[in-house]
Design goal:
The complex is a heterodimer of chains A (220) and B (375).
Chain A (H helix, E strand, L loop, with lengths): L1 H13 L1 H8 L3 E2 L8 H22 L7 H10 L4 H28 L8 H23 L4 H14 L6 H9 L6 H33 L10
Helix pairs in contact in A: 3-5, 4-5, 5-6, 6-7, 6-9
Chain B lengths: L2 H16 L2 E2 H27 L23 H6 L8 H17 L1 H4 L11 H24 L13 H15 L1 H4 L6 E2 L10 E2 L5 H6 L2 H10 L19 H15 L7 H7 L12 H12 L18 H6 L15 H6 L18 H12 L9
Antiparallel strand pairs in B: 2-3
Classes of the chains: A mainly alpha (220), B mainly alpha (375).
Chain lengths: 220, 375
């Protein structure tokens, strides 16, 4: 059969068997359901990525058009309400799963030797997720978004010494404007996702290389 | 951890793996189940709760109570404990310290034990922090005052057109007329006797884009006597309101677009069958809202006759009562028949109500001017 010839040919060149053996066909300690939180977060991130890309087809990042474009997504685009609804709730769920995932790792002491770097990348992933929440919140350009970001950026502006610089860097001027929206949009769809994808790569590499931690026993 | 402890750990971990299971499929199936459950949850949340509609961003509306997304509420609440000049402790020192403490946790936590019984300090500390975050979040939810009610946000086209009509009736009627027909302005301070051109013509609609209409309403045309209506310039309309108003104008007067049937129904004034008894709520209020309230509201020249509610219609004004149940010689009836009496001149000042509407008023007064419809 053709698969008998195609698979070995591909395997010889791509190393499919090796990939299978190192990622899937390996022994891991028996663990409980709390250990699904990491993959749950990854799943939610992929959902955010897919729905976010779909939303970017219709969303227009300008103060004049952002609100109308979202209204169009909600009422005019087929299943636009579903895509935006999933993106909206996915953000909330993702913050929850990331946070509980962190607590799980903390309470099982999984951040200790040899998984210190996995933990550190995880903390950066937590911060990047919060950054996604903060930047995404402004994009609908409605009252809630506008005023929450006004307050949020002014809080960042209260840092001693460099506060004013941070405030201006975030807003792109002294007040919220089209520049702010462009900045938040860019951070939300380019900068932070790039950082998150890179960090997830390292995080997963380490999880596979070191193996998932086991549930500590009484003498551990 | 020293080398002996490391070797001990690695030995134990090897044993755990040997007594463990295959990652695929034994562990992975749990992850897949959770992923499916999450997907269903997401679709359910999107379908049954959805995303609440919010009014358009309005930098001029300073009455809005800002609040962050719920997962930042604990930070927001914590700032209340650091008022004024020590605010930077809450905004910089504590969050900064928390982030650094988290990042470096594996490097300063030298305790080699992993079971919770041997890590009591670390677990107690973290539990207190989490409890504090939960407490602050709940406290923030409880103590934040509710948002000023702005009514439902119009998201569908018919709802926007209906909302736009309401704004038109209140804000524009007194100068532009109920149908945008214009005419000689009467009873408006500073514009008495000004001859207003019609704004409902094809010329107007074809030569002005939505943006132009929006700007004219928001900024006004002071050189022509039109005041600004945007909140930022002293008017009463938010940006969402002006947007709805423009939608109403476009769909009502521009013959290139068709008014949706549903909107035509919502905007129509209810008609009366030959034996129906008219009531204020069903029949009179829509006419009053559309033809009278623009002038007969507080702050306008109207002999203090305001028509915002049943009680006011019956019982306000310098010449009250203007409506006497059963009496067709009531001021209101005589004036809409365009008589000039002591209480004032013909009403509405620029254009007579259509005979149908006058008839509804007469039948209502004759029936005793009831407020609620009879069942």
């Amino acid at each position: 059969m053709i698969s008998k010839r195609v698979f070995p040919w591909l395997d010889e060149r791509l190393g499919l068997t090796t990939i299978y053996k190192t990622t899937l066909d390996r022994m891991v300690p028996k663990v409980n359901w709390w250990f699904t939180l990491g993959s749950a977060t990854l799943f939610l991130f992929v959902m955010q990525l897919v729905t976010g890309i779909m939303l970017s087809v219709y969303y227009v990042p300008s103060p004049d058009k952002a609100y109308d474009s979202i209204e169009y997504i909600m009422t005019g685009v087929a299943f636009g309400w579903l895509i935006r609804g999933i993106h909206h709730w996915g953000a909330t769920l993702m913050v929850i799963t990331v946070f509980i995932h962190m607590l799980r790792v903390f309470f099982y002491a999984a951040y200790k030797y040899p998984r210190e770097i996995t933990w550190t990348t995880g903390v950066f992933l937590l911060l990047a997720t919060l950054g996604m929440g903060f930047t995404g919140y402004l994009l609908p350009w409605n009252q809630k978004a506008y005023w929450a970001t006004t307050v949020g950026t002014s809080i960042a502006g209260s840092v001693p010494g460099i506060g004013d610089f941070i405030l201006r860097a975030l807003r792109g001027g002294s007040d919220l404007s089209a520049v702010t929206l462009a900045r938040f949009f860019s951070a939300h769809i380019w900068m932070l996702p790039a950082v998150i994808i890179a960090l997830i790569g390292v995080h997963l590499y380490l999880v596979i290389r070191l193996g998932i931690s086991s549930v500590p026993k009484e003498n551990d | 951890m020293n080398d002996i402890q490391k070797a001990q750990y690695n030995e134990k971990y090897k044993r755990a793996k040997r007594n463990g299971e295959k990652f695929f499929p034994d562990t992975l199936y749990k992850d897949l189940l959770i992923a499916i459950a999450l997907f269903l949850l997401l679709v359910g949340l999107a379908a049954f709760i959805g995303v609440a509609a919010e009014p358009r961003a309005d930098p001029s509306d300073t009455t809005y109570i800002p609040r962050p997304e719920w997962y930042f509420l604990f930070l927001f609440e914590m700032l209340k404990f650091f008022p004024g000049s020590i605010e930077w402790v809450g905004t910089t020192i504590i969050p900064g310290a928390a982030v650094i403490a988290l990042l470096l946790l594996p490097f300063y936590d030298k305790n080699p034990n992993r079971h919770w019984k041997r890590r009591k300090f670390a677990l107690t500390f973290m539990s207190v922090v989490v409890a504090a975050m939960v407490f602050l979040t709940i406290r923030a939810v409880i103590t934040t005052p509710p948002q000023k009610d702005v009514g439902a946000v119009a998201t569908t086209l018919p709802a926007k057109i209906a909302a736009g009509l309401d704004f038109y009736s209140v804000q524009c009627n007194e100068c532009h007329g109920a149908e945008g027909e214009g005419g000689v302005i009467k009873g408006v301070k500073g514009l008495e006797g000004f001859k207003m051109k019609p704004i409902n013509s094809q010329d107007e609609m074809y030569t002005r884009s939505d943006d132009t209409l929006y700007n004219i309403i928001e900024y006004g045309q002071p050189s022509l006597g039109m005041p600004p209506f945007g909140k930022a310039f002293g008017g009463e309309l938010s940006r969402s309101d002006i947007g709805n108003l423009v939608t109403y104008l476009r769909y009502t007067w521009d013959n290139r677009v068709e008014l949706p049937k549903e909107a035509a129904q919502t905007n129509a004034i209810p008609t009366l069958g030959p034996t129906d008894i008219p009531s204020y709520d069903v029949n009179i209020a829509p006419i009053v809202k559309r033809y009278c309230v623009s002038c007969h509201r507080p702050g306008k020249e109207n002999n203090n006759y305001v028509m915002g509610s049943y009680a006011d219609v019956m019982n306000s004004g310098d010449h009250k009562p203007n409506v006497v149940p059963g009496d067709l010689n009531s001021n209101l009836i005589r004036m809409i028949h365009r008589e000039k009496i002591d209480a004032g001149g013909e009403m509405p000042p620029t254009k007579a109500l259509s005979p149908d509407l006058v008839a509804i008023f007469e039948r209502w007064v004759k029936a005793g001017a009831p407020e609620k419809p009879k069942k």
